[in-house]
Predict the structure.
Amino acid sequence: MKIAVYGANGYQGKLVLAELARHDIDIVLVGRNGARLREAATTAGTVGAEQRVADTDDHDALVAAFRGADAVINCAGPFTSSGPAVISAAIAAGCHHVDTAGEQLYTKAVFDTFAGEAERAGVTVVPSTNDGCVPGDLLAHLVAERVQPIEEITVSHFVTGGGGFSRGSLRSAVETLDAIKAGGLTYDDGDWRIGTPARHTSITLPDTPQPADVVKCPLSEVVTIPRHIAVRHVESLVDAAIAAQLDTPLTPQIIDSLPEGPTEEDRRTQRFTYLIDAVGRDGQTARGILRGHDTYGITAVIAVEAARRLVVDGAKPGVLAPAQAYDPTSFLSFLAPHGISWTITVSDTSTLQQ
Ligand SMILES: NC(=O)c1ccc[n+]([C@@H]2O[C@H](COP(=O)([O-])OP(=O)(O)OC[C@H]3O[C@@H](n4cnc5c(N)ncnc54)[C@H](OP(=O)(O)O)[C@@H]3O)[C@@H](O)[C@H]2O)c1
């Protein structure tokens, strides 16, 4: 199996390279700068791997760079501006495509723009194969099987420790700041809308007596969940303390002066809890709780496994949500040895654990 990594020399790209090398998968490093690709190959321990230079404004060069690969993992953010060119080239080269994007409007645009093209080419595109969207979407599917019919699903993210965001994540946040400030999309009665006020302003975490303040935040799960779950309302929230970190104005110069991303030691100290709260139309409730650590490390594991499964197991051609492309229980179980644990509690108090 051969997998091409676009944006291979970035912080996330190098973690993906190292993860691919652990699986003994043939790698093609792709990016817009040859010197930076060579340096990344050394850092990630993939010196013998093929390297190809292609910029996102040169479609033919990108197609040539991807040709011969079974799948492309795109780690080059911000995705809103450059991601569509990479998908278009991957489809033209006959490659499956996944990416590490956390940009909600980009994820929505991928479904709106590329579904037909990918289907006709016989390839599968799964956007947002990161620490949040894949496990969140898969767990939501399992929660939804226990509450029917569903009125609302609320996804909320809480992260502690870990040394903060990578430079690339901050660049993505700056490029999409308007959507972040507006709270992003809400799914309501069959369509996605921007500017809808949140139904929830606080969420009670497990084992914590006091509710935590939350604010709306554009997570990709709002785009993916309604594709496989019949639900009236989906919104996504984040700990208000995390959102406040983006109140400080960030210029490109400030971002350039920061470290590339959290150190390995910082990543080990990070903990995240993602909650999926579902309410049935009859008032029944269910909660999925997903816990893990090291968002960037687990994103590398998830993106590689997401691409690998598309190649080995196959999935329907087109643009798919994680739960449409992968068996939810199988993929979540695969993540358990990587520190991901999950439970589902239904209001009649029965609890499933992994
Ligand atoms: N849960 C999540 O939402 C989640 C988790 C993990 C990662 N991510 C996302 O993953 C992305 C990567 O993060 P990172 O920390 O690896 O960023 P990074 O270190 O800044 O790396 C970005 C990479 O993308 C390339 N790139 C940027 N703009 C490009 C363009 N216009 N054309 C071609 N290449 C371009 C860069 O190439 P040069 O070096 O040549 O500039 C570099 O290789 C971010 O968008 C981040 O938000 C999201």
Summary: The chain has 15 helices and 17 strands. Residues 7, 9-13, 31-33, 36, 56, 75-79, 82, 100, 102, 130-132, 166-169, 171-172, 260-261, 295-296, 299 surround NAP (CB under 6 Å). Residues 133-294+329-353 form a domain with the Dihydrodipicolinate Reductase; domain 2 fold (CATH 3.30.360). The mean pLDDT is 96.
